[in-house]
Amino acid sequence: MENFTGHRDPLPPLARSAHIAHAKYALAHLPGSLVDFDASRMAVVFYCVGILDLLGALQEETTELERGSWRNWIWEQYLGGRYGTGFRPGPFMAGTSVNSGYDSPHIIMTYAALLSLAMLRDDYSRLNRQGLLRFVGSCQNRDGSFSNTPNGGGDYDLRNLYSAFCICCMLGDWSSIDVERAISFIASCRTYEGGYGQLPSCEAQSGTTFLAIACLRLAPPGPRPGPRLTPQEQARSEHWLIHSQDASGGFRGRTGKLPDVCYCFWGGAALRILGAHEKINAYAFTQFIAACQFPFGGVGKAPGQPSDPYHTYFALAAAALYTPRLEASVRAYGQWDSITSANLNPLLNATEETVKWAWRHMRVEDSGRRR
């Protein structure tokens, strides 16, 4: 597929100021259109703070008072109990810091909270690292999968497994989970197309394919030398992902579906991890993202659709991965260069500076020296 890396036509302007305002508003006042997100407010915080981080706006467009209030709100969701310590989705269930059994920590929200704290440059002085490891281990099931709450509670699928792997990676400690059993579960989700479903026997999706490929790359070395994917498996995954790009430049989440801006990240990031990112049309890819910008700030799922923090974050994260491949004259028009400096880490889904902060301050072996 032609990648148009040398295309000279400028991109539509990046509505940077409007996107910043969209993120800050959602942090302060959850819009009525996002009432369904009330049960997962921690994810909204991750998307909004992530938007500001990607745009390089956290220091220059927010105050220390604002950043401190966001950090404190995140820590107010920190719970301890018999299964260890982690973060709940928000304060909608209870106002206690002790796990009552009804408002237990949630593994996806714990991943979101930890990375949000790294974006906000928290020092993790309140983090119980051994308790966090115990919580992650308590979410693993016998088949190697992970539930989103301890002891088999809630849903179990690749989203939870990815969150567990990211947390262990940030802590630098994999001792609380059975990595090889988790890898076997990932393999059971692989489809004939080369993609991965959310669970065994499910249809392949770009989102879950990203999760699987990222986990295989994040995992520590296994008992056998070499990569977790065979060359044949990688080639089939690349083929399926590459052909998920629509003629518009956007990516489809599933075969035969319409493109959606969030899948630009899921599919694009998976190809970046596989080293196959030069095989897609990067110019059309970024044009599609630009066309999904909402006139009043934020990015919608498709051109003409209303915006929300979820699609805005993943659109900008996808642009951070692929806009640098375009000529400077194309990027510079309308501030697209402000995203290229983000230098996104596709494995953990955060800027490289944020990932380095997390590694520097969260590692289990370093915590003793800081306390």
UniProtKB/TrEMBL annotation:
Boundaries of every Prenyltransferase alpha-alpha toroid domain copy: 14-323
- Keywords, ordered alphabetically: Metal-binding, Prenyltransferase, Repeat, Transferase, Zinc
* Listed Gene3D superfamilies: 1.50.10.20
- A GO MF label: metal ion binding
Give the required cofactors.
Answer: Zn(2+)
Q: Name one GO cellular component term.
A: CAAX-protein geranylgeranyltransferase complex
Please report which protein family the annotation says this sequence is part of.
Belongs to the protein prenyltransferase subunit beta family.
Can you name this protein? Terpenoid cyclases/Protein prenyltransferase
Query: From which source organism is this entry?
Result: Favolaschia claudopus
